[in-house]
Amino acid sequence: MIASFPIDYPYALSLGQLWVRYLLAGSVYILLGAGLWIVLHGFIFGKSLKALAGGLLLGVAMIFWPLGLLPYLRFIKFPVYLILTAATTGILLFLDRYLWKRVRSINPEERKIARRMVPLLVVIMVLGTFIFAWLENSSDRNSYQETSTKLEEAQSQLAEIQQEAATVTAQMAQDPAFRKLFKNGNYSALNPLAQKEINAAQLIDAVAITDQNGITVAAPHNPLLVNQDLTVLGPAHVRVLGGEPSKTLELGITTPLVVGAGTPLLENGEVIGAVFAAKLIDRAFVAALAQQIGVENLGIYCNCNKLYVSTISNSQFDKAVQNFAKLAFNEENVAENKSFIQNLTTEGVTLTAAGQILTDENGQKLALLMVFSPYPPKELLWSLKATTVLTTGITILLFFSPLVIHHLKE
């Protein structure tokens, strides 16, 4: 995986920075082209098979050097790329100097044609790299803005669930009939009341009632939760049992994660129990949310227990997501509380991961929302195809032009 984690700007590189990188790649391309001309003239005049083999290698390098690097230039650290480019350029310059000394059979007119092609290539390189950098920069900005909108929409959907859960739990905690049944220890009678709230709610699908220690005493959506300790799910559940209403996005018992809220049951200022309401988060829920906000792949990462639910799942992807989350939750990025972008590779497919940190009303960093989109984005694919055609065409032109010129002179 070739990737870096940008901090100052979502895609890290400005138009000027992208253009400089592409100019460096283009300079190497020009040198490869010059070397190709020289080597082929060596083959024409010296009938050297080594020169022909060298020409073929240079022709292949001309195609794959820029195409192999351009889509990933912004994800390579600039010092590394500069060293790589300088080393490659130095080798090519040495090769060109050596070949110019060896090949002495190019007539003046052919040299004039060759010299005329160099400015043409320079103009093509400068304009081509600028256009490509501008297209990529524009595509990146548009993609980032669109992704940020999707992330905010997904965040809003989760916030609506938490708000409804907070309303439901607060009403239940204040309901005299509910409180009487709870204080009398008639826990089985709490199930119908809780189920009624679930049926009336639009977003939540689970309610759990615990004693003062966090042990579940009633859970109409799943009786197997009875006698389970909910304090193990995360710090938000613990805060509720400490007497503080709190929104939750933490570990689940029957599903990987839950999103909701909890309200303590208080008696004379003392916590005697708690009511929790939530939406159970599994892959089906995440897939439905992704479809609702209009993205292909979506993930939710819980920071407190380092678990995530996503529409994608494999061991390679799991490692990439964990690395992405580790970078997102470092101190500097958490303080900024903004969106993050990184490329990651899973099963041979490169994706752009965009993440946004979710916080609760106390500023606690609950989770990371992640949108995964194909890289390069669709808007950039046509420019990559155009670059491929242009690069291949110029390479073929350079490859055959010495043969054509020499044939015309005979």
UniProtKB/TrEMBL annotation:
Cellular compartments per GO CC: plasma membrane
Residue ranges that the Swiss-Prot or TrEMBL entry lists as coiled coil: 144-171
Entry keyword Transmembrane helix: yes
Principal location class: membrane
One Pfam entry name: sCache_3_2
Keyword annotations of the record: Cell membrane, Coiled coil, Membrane, Transmembrane, Transmembrane helix
Subcellular location: Cell membrane
Keyword Protein transport: no
Annotated Single cache domain residues: 159-275
Membrane topology per record: Multi-pass membrane protein
Annotated transmembrane regions: 20-40, 52-72, 78-96, 117-135, 380-405
InterPro entries: sCache_3, Sensor-like_sf
Descriptive protein name: Single cache domain-containing protein
Species, as recorded: candidate division CPR1 bacterium GW2011_GWC1_49_13
